[in-house]
Amino acid sequence: MTEKAGGERIVRHMSFKQKLLIIGIIPIVVLGSLIGYLSYSHARNTVIASQKGVVADTVYRTDMNLSTKARYIMESVRSMAESDPAKDLVNHTDSAADKSELEYYATNLSRAITAVSSVSLLSHGELLFSTADTALASGSPAAAAYEASAAENTQKVYWSNLSTGLYQTPEGKEASSVIAAYTAVCDDAGEMVGLLVVEMFSDSFSTLLLENQNLLRYQYTYMVDRGGRVICSDKRVDVVWRTLINKRFQDGDRRFIFEWDGQPYYVCGQYNAFTGWRTFSVISVENLFPQASSLRTYSALLVAGALVLMLLFILLMYRSITKPLNDLSKAMKTVQDHNFELQLANGYHDEIGRLTDSFNQMVHKINSLIREVYQERLAQKNAELEALQAQINPHFLYNTLDSINWMAIERGEMDISRVIVALGKLMQYSMDTEQTQTTLEQEYAHLEDYLCVQKNRLENRLEYHLEMDTQVKNLKVPKLILQPLVENAIKHGIEPSGKPGTIRVASSLCGEEIRITVEDSGCGMSTEQLDVVRRGCADGDWAGIGLRNAVRRLKLFFGDDSRMIIQSAPNQGTIMTLILPATEKRGNHEHSDH
After folding, report:
1. I want to staple 458 with a disulfide (CB 3.0 to 4.6 A). Which of 183, 462, 530, 558 is the partner?
2. Bridge partner residues of 184 (DSSP)
């Protein structure tokens, strides 16, 4: 559990780059190495299996040649043993003609089979006929052994093991090893009366080993008799080898691998049914496929090259993934440092590209929200500041106005009383900072009190008309939103004109929009002045505090669904139109009454 927890801790502390590289590189290396190893092993095993087939084919063809030769020799020996000259000699009814004819048989056999060293005819140990130049060995054990074997089956041709043969070796000469093919000579009754022996030099059987057909280098091919003695071999064969191979062959193994001096050798053996001899072909496993080392090196280089190319491709893919992620990570750190103007360039159309787009949208949204909240609070603070600056002990002023109002009523000055009441309502409406929104109907009531006070000040120079569609009277709007427009019309339109003017405020429902128009008949604005005001209205940046706050508060309250249209011309007055959504949309910041 501790090791597992340690492994999980290591993985958790690894960076995404490290995990991506590990996930990409380890499977590629393992898979590439496995494919290279399996490919090499399959090619090596295929070639070795093919070469083993070559070894087996060499042994098989050698044995087939031996069988052909042995069959011919056996047929020739049997034919000579059954000939009349051989029988006559055994029955001691021989004549010069019989010996001559038998010698003719032997000569032809020697010509046909160059391996023949002697042809002998014996009867009860007595030599009746021979082509050999030397005398019969006294008390020859070979003759007795041949006669005993032939007596078991008088119709069979037998093959002896390797020996020195029937005859004495001349002094000064090395004894030759011979192989004998022998059979019984029978009388007319089928009884064995003699023995025909054809001895052959063992070296002459080397031609059967098909030296020219040993297709593999370092391949050993040799032939042994029933006793395990080497009849012939194309290379010198170690005696310990023969012992190990004979034992395995006698145990029933025909194709096997044995260890010698720390090196494995492959052996293929074949038993010959005519002679009882065995033919073996031996080769070291390494020499079955001597090019294996070159193939292994080539496979390793090929796999290494493929792995390098794959690793380069992985690194390119890794960079294409991690670079935008690194950029995104750095951008997030920048945003943490309150840089909300940042926007990442995005040229990707995959998941990372969508993530980058989402990040840009999020930062833009955060920036917009911060600006809106900041501007809303700023506008509210400005309004509160202006209210604080305007009020000097509001309760004292309101009580004083109430006292003055009753003094005017007692004296019958009802015009003064009306103005005082309107001023008191204005103060009470303006100083109520707990309510940030109101209905359009209440806003109109406040506007009427304000115009009442202004008309008292301007007397006959000001006329006003308030018009409101009953369908829009319950529309929620920011508090004190119309007074700055009317105040602006009086201050910059009616008063500078120097002549009587009229202000008209009208509200109506037009489809999905509500239009509130503040129109004055004042001096109007030039084209340059109108452009300045319009730009200030669009940018929210000019010196008119009241009008500026009104525009900002409308944007904060209704969002982009609200706008202001200003129309004016010199000496033709000014028209300011507020266009608001009829559905009372609030954007992202809906105001409450608290």
Report:
1. 462
2. 195
Confidence of residue 7 (pLDDT cuts 50, 70, 90): low
Q: Are 320 and 351 in contact (CB under 8 A)?
A: no
Structure tokens at 430: 């303006």
> Any residues with CB less than 8 A from the CB of 28 and at least 6 apart, and which?
307, 310, 311, 314
pLDDT tens-digit series, residues 12-51 = 556 666 666 676 677 777 777 787 778 777 777 787 788 7
CA 529/CA 532 separation, integer angstroms: 5
The arithmetic mean of pLDDT across residues 291-305, rounded, is 74
The alpha helices in 115-252, defined as continuous H runs, are 141-152, 239-250
Write out the two tokens for 38.
């399996």
- In the structure encoding, which two tokens stand for residue 159, read together? 């093959």
**Phi, psi angles (nearest 5°) of residue 589:** -135, 85
Please report the pLDDT score of residue 278 as a whole number.
Answer: 92
Q: CA 436, CA 376: separation in Å to the nearest integer?
A: 11
Three-class DSSP category at 506: strand
Q: How far apart are CA 222 and CA 269, in angstroms?
A: 10
Rounded CA-CA distance 12/283 in Å is 57
Domain with CATH 3.30.565.10 in the chain: 461-594
138-147, 397-406, 415-424: which has the highest mean pLDDT?
138-147
∠ CA 494-543-553, rounded to 5°: 90
- Residue in the block written with tokens 């809106």: 372
Does residue 36 contact residue 310 with C-beta atoms inside 8 Å? no
Contact between 524 and 568 (Cβ < 8 Å): yes
CA distance 88 to 478: 153
Q: Of 416, 506, 400, nearest to 452 (Cα)? A: 416
Angle at 379 between CA 373 and CA 383, to 5 degrees: 145
The DSSP bridge pattern shows strands 255-260 and 192-201 to be unpaired
CA distances from 363 to 333, 377, 555 (A): 12, 21, 21
d(CA 277, CA 74): 15
Q: How far apart are the first and last CA of the chain?
A: 58
CB-facing half-sphere around the CA of 174: CA atoms within 13 A = 2
CATH superfamily of the domain spanning 461-594:
Histidine kinase-like ATPase, C-terminal domain (3.30.565.10)
For residue 314, the surrounding DSSP H or E stretch is helix 292-336
pLDDT tens readout for residues 523-579: 888 888 888 888 777 665 544 566 777 777 787 788 778 888 888 888 888 998 988
Topology annotation, domain 82-206: Beta-Lactamase (3.30.450)
What is the b/e burial string over 17-36, where b = at least 16 CB atoms within 10 angstroms of the residue's CB? Answer: eeebbeebbeebeeebeeeb
Residues of the chain with CATH 3.30.450.20: 82-206
Whole-angstrom Cα distance, residue 66 to residue 48?
27
Question: How many residues does this entry show for the chain?
Answer: 594
CB 400 within 8 A of CB 394: no
